[in-house]
Design a protein that fits this description.
Layout: E1 10-13, H1 23-38, E2 42-47, H2 56-69, E3 79-84, H3 89-101, E4 105-108, H4 112-122, E5 143-146, E6 152-157, E7 161-166, E8 174-176, H5 184-194, E9 199-203, H6 210-219, E10 226-230, E11 233-234, H7 250-255, H8 260-269, H9 277-280, H10 287-293, E12 304-305, H11 308-320, H12 324-331, H13 341-351, H14 361-365, H15 377-384, H16 389-402, H17 407-422, H18 426-438, H19 446-453, H20 455-482
Parallel strand pairs: 1-2, 2-3, 9-10, 11-12
Antiparallel strand pairs: 4-5, 5-8, 6-7
This protein binds glutamic acid.
Glutamic acid binds near residues 16 and 188.
Length: about 500
């Protein structure tokens, strides 16, 4: 079925290419996608490129890739576009001509400085309607302005209810600049009409444009779409998220090891409560579950705090939901090229519980891929200075020389032959072995790590640690003698 014949509402996402893909934009895209899905409608992607002439192919690809990462697929039959706003120049010009011809718009020859001077002299802000009745036609440097009618404009918004704007507060705004280029409000409305958009769902920052756009829809002979303005995203200081202050680029989160499912889940909860989530005591959902249930009814109008710690917590939860194969595939881009993937696959499930981001994965398991562990000095001195460290290591080595190399057996062997002999709890008994083979006091479960490492390598590391312990003890002993220490 061609998209023109497809019934149902038509939503759109209309990003301005700014170089980064803002998380707020990603949320708007998800809202529109979810609604198009839920109502059997269409999702139109329009790139609003009229203000920036840049390398098109690169940033269109960037936007389509970013959308694909969060599950909005250009291959889906509901997806239409991407359309370039610049391709609609002729339609923008025609609409401007029509508005002029009908008297809904008029030309004005004042320069921006003259507009400012007049406003100062009048004690007002903005344009005073100077050319409303001067009957000017088009000409170089002349701007086309919309003749704002008297009265008020009532925007019916699915999130905010009826928002009333007094038209006296809206100046006769510019539609076409002196150089003939259309301004955002005109191009945006003409394109929405051209794509037969029925629903405009976007960020709250566009609410002030909406009465102007609604007047334009009407002046061009169309009923306005259903509007919905979703709440602004703010940072911990309750300030609007900004490119300068905050981490707002979707790509950055992807590169930092956030899973797409977690990002989508988190973005969807910003300003929206999934029905049933409070009873369930969990906000963790798959995209499909949310697509089925998203509606504007449960979107709030108050600002939504973009809480990175909460996003990280969501990410941990989504990482834990991955199957073993999915986990390995998801971590792959963060692994050094020369790491043995089979070895990683063997250890990955044992660190799954501990990961906050995918980027954390290598740091948990790198000891398995190095020739020798990198010994952390603090971990060494804390663990190896105990009076039992040497005995535990030596006994573990002899017990492990013959043990069957499975983690259950390695654990039982340590319990039977080391813990009991030294009168230690398991945590203490395994600490010297852990530092010997991993170099650290924290890491994946020890016996599983030993199993993955293999007997030869594990024993070699344990023996090397024992030698190092002797060597350090010798040196400490000599130092004591030279220093005239009392010894014992
Ligand atoms: N191009 C506008 C923006 O990126 C979006 C306009 C709209 O959604 O109507 O903010």
């Amino acid at each position: 079925m061609s998209s023109d014949d497809r019934p149902g509402p038509r939503f759109r996402f209309a990003p301005s290419p700014t170089g980064i893909f803002h998380v707020g934009g990603a949320r708007s895209a998800l809202h529109n996608w979810a609604l198009a899905h839920r109502h059997g409608g269409t999702f139109v992607l329009r790139i609003e490129d009229t203000d920036a002439a840049r390398n098109e192919a690169t940033w269109i690809d960037g936007i389509v890739d970013a959308l694909a990462w969060i599950g909005i697929s250009a291959d889906d039959e509901r997806f239409e576009g991407p359309f370039m706003q610049s391709a609609g120049a002729a339609a923008h010009g025609e609409a401007a001509d029509r508005l002029f011809a009908s008297g809904a718009a008029y030309y004005c020859d004042l320069s921006p400085e003259q507009v400012r001077e007049r406003a100062e002299a009048n004690g007002t802000t903005g344009y005073d309607g100077h050319s409303r009745d001067r009957g000017l036609g088009p000409g170089p440097g002349r701007v086309l302005r919309f003749r704002v009618p008297e009265g008020s404009t009532v925007v019916s918004d699915a999130v905010r209810g009826e928002v009333v704007f007094d038209n006296a507060t809206i100046e006769d705004f510019v539609l076409v600049r002196g150089d003939g280029s259309p301004v955002f409000v005109l191009a945006n409305v003409v394109d929405d009409i051209g794509s037969r958009i029925t629903d405009v769902v976007r960020g709250e920052e566009h609410l002030p444009n909406t009465p102007k756009q609604q007047m334009l829809w009407e002046a061009l002979g169309h009923s306005p779409p259903r509007w919905a303005h979703v709440p602004v995203l703010v940072n911990a200081e309750r300030k609007k998220l900004s490119k300068r202050r905050d981490k707002v680029a979707l790509e950055q989160y992807r590169d930092d090891g956030i899973l797409a499912d977690a990002m989508v889940n988190y973005l969807m909860t910003l300003g929206w409560t999934m029905p049933g989530s409070e009873e369930a005591g969990s906000e963790i959902y798959s995209f499909d579950e949310m697509l089925e249930r998203f509606s504007l009814d449960h979107v709030t109008s108050s600002p939504a705090f973009f809480d990175i710690d909460k996003l990280l917590a969501f990410n941990g939860e989504h990482i834990r939901r991955l199957s073993a194969d999915e986990l390995v595939a998801a971590c792959d881009p963060w692994l050094p090229a020369d790491w043995d993937r089979d070895r990683f696959a063997a250890i990955a499930p044992h660190v799954q519980q501990r990961l906050t981001t995918l980027a954390d994965a290598p740091g948990w398991v790198d000891f398995l891929f190095l020739d020798d562990p990198e010994i952390d000095d603090q971990a060494w001195s804390k663990t190896m200075s105990t009076e039992y460290a040497r005995g535990v290591l030596a006994d573990s080595i002899s017990a492990y020389e013959a043990a069957e190399w499975r983690h259950e057996v390695l654990k039982e062997t340590m319990e039977r032959e080391v813990m009991a002999a030294h009168g230690l709890k398991l945590g203490k008994a395994q600490a010297p072995v852990r530092v010997a083979v991993t170099g650290r006091t924290v890491g994946p479960p020890l016996f599983e790590a030993l199993e993955v490492m293999g007997r030869d390598e594990a024993l070699r590391r344990m023996r090397a640690a024992l030698l190092l312990l002797d060597d350090r003890d010798d040196r400490t002993g000599r130092a004591d003698e030279v220093g005239g220490g009392s010894g014992d």
